[in-house]
């Protein structure tokens, strides 16, 4: 209504009385949204002589970009690695549930599985936008099966694989296809894996190193070929050793090509990683930290806030445990960094003008009060 | 002329903001009769804008029926540049109040035809019924808006080349790189401001003291263009103690004395 007709008739929403995360700081400023994207209010004022149709009073809350979870295996009784006929309902169910934890986009994660499972599950889910129905699907995260036996963790050993014939062909054979895949975790010490890393990256798929006994040079070579993530740092990899730091050494490696960042996932629940180790990683490489839940089927059961999508707990945990990690850094570790990792930071993970208006409203203790996708409220905390 | 002297910058800003507030309230603006306000930019009016925003937030005043006309804008600086006067007005004033964007006028320094832009601006002011209250500042060289020394005292809105003094004074906003400071600007003329029903000039700080002296204690002179307002029927100069440092003690004492005789407008200003 109140905007130059030649530009847009769409309604404009103005979030007031809030602190927004912008330029790495929480600033007292209003947030404007139109047609699902963050709007530049100055342009609106001068170019269109426009103003807001609707005001949303945030009553002092923090507005952060919606959280992005790149490693979540299921939850609320759903296991993404199950070869069901109706994977989509399971994914949708979880997608809807995680809205209450401020997660607006995620990568459904599959652990090591036999080809039959991948062939059945993968084609059923497409990359899709979020909305009232649930968080957006950014693509699968396939953790395995090309991982190390010694570091299989909870993955089933009988389904682990190595690259036999031509690297990428093995991968295609295992998965059945590479559509709608956002990320693959593999072990770079496996023979033939480096060319696979290269090819996956060329296809725009993020490659992550994990469940591996690689040494630092093998890890660096993978990064050179395009790998950019470390799956749950410290867990399922060789421990840091001062003469060969292994994958952990990527945090401070001087072999990382200029302009590129190696991100690392952390499950900051204080259990998977000792808080002191978490602090070492954060201090060494604060801009690479990505918070993940690595949530499993049991998440959310029994009901209650003990998981809080684990991310928010993690954030609180991070805040509590990691001295020097500010609220802003914690929020960015759950939004901006995963977006940059997946190469989608031009539209997600931040509140820049033009970005998708996926938002989470938080109180000072970082409890989720409301979640928005494309500017529409999709979840609000009950009274 | 009225010369209102406050102890410091904050008090001067508050006095000026209260004056504007009271004038608008007493005018009782409506959809049929807007209050037209001329506005400046720069560090001097910053405190005044903050106060006006406070008054808006506490419900004392609304800008719904106020039309504003800014004095000037750089030529060739992108509108979204943080140092453009559009950015200044948006960040320091417009975004915090309830003014209708269609009523906030600022010269467009990126217009295709600058001359036409200037003429159109004069036209818009005329169509709005003229300016009720024009608020301005003063440069260290005594200029009002960008009417640099030598500007005609009957000038209208036009393109001006900036004086060296002005460019140097502005360098601090452009990383102290003289090469980055715009060299031309669009500005309302001295004559344009003289047409306003009332003019209020804010002057604070010792670095403006000499300019104030030249403006009010010496003759009307196109080298100190603010001096033109000696010939305006309703001018108020609002300043802090530091800005009076070059004035005669007699002048200061006289005006401090008159300020103690409260007019009805002033009484409400002091509360």
TrEMBL record, chain A:
Entry annotation: catalytic residues: 294 (proton donor/acceptor)
UniProt xrefs under Gene3D superfamilies: Metal-dependent hydrolases, Urease, subunit C, domain 1
Details of cofactor binding: Binds 1 divalent metal cation per subunit.
GO molecular function terms attached to this record: metal ion binding; N-acetylglucosamine-6-phosphate deacetylase activity
Names of required cofactors: a divalent metal cation
Reaction(s) catalysed by this chain's protein: N-acetyl-D-glucosamine 6-phosphate + H2O = D-glucosamine 6-phosphate + acetate
Signal sequence annotation: none
Protein name, as recorded: N-acetylglucosamine-6-phosphate deacetylase
Organism of origin: Sander lucioperca (Pike-perch)
Enzyme Commission designation: 3.5.1.25
Membrane-crossing residue ranges in chain numbering: none
Pathway stated in the Swiss-Prot or TrEMBL entry: Amino-sugar metabolism; N-acetylneuraminate degradation
UniProtKB/TrEMBL annotation, chain B:
Family (UniProt): Belongs to the glucosamine/galactosamine-6-phosphate isomerase family.
Primary location recorded for the protein, binned into one broad class: cytoplasm
Enzyme Commission designation: 3.5.99.6
An example Gene Ontology molecular-function term: identical protein binding
GO process annotations (BP): carbohydrate metabolic process; glucosamine catabolic process; N-acetylglucosamine catabolic process; N-acetylneuraminate catabolic process
InterPro entries: Glc/Gal-6P_isomerase (IPR006148), Glucosamine6P_isomerase (IPR004547), Glucosamine6P_isomerase_CS (IPR018321), NagB/RpiA_transferase-like (IPR037171)
Lipid metabolism recorded as keyword: no
Lineage: Eukaryota, Metazoa, Chordata, Craniata, Vertebrata
Description of how the protein assembles with itself and partners: Homohexamer.
Sequence ranges assigned to domain Glucosamine/galactosamine-6-phosphate isomerase in this UniProt record: 15-232
GO cellular component: cytoplasm
A Pfam family annotated for this UniProt entry: Glucosamine_iso
NCBIfam families named among the record's database cross-references: nagB
Reactions catalysed: alpha-D-glucosamine 6-phosphate + H2O = beta-D-fructose 6-phosphate + NH4(+)
CDD domains given in the database record: GlcN6P_deaminase
Keywords tagged on the record: Carbohydrate metabolism, Coiled coil, Cytoplasm, Hydrolase
Protein name: Glucosamine-6-phosphate isomerase
Organism: Sander lucioperca
Residues forming coiled coils: 104-131
Localisation: Cytoplasm
Transmembrane parts of this sequence: none
Domain of life: Eukaryota
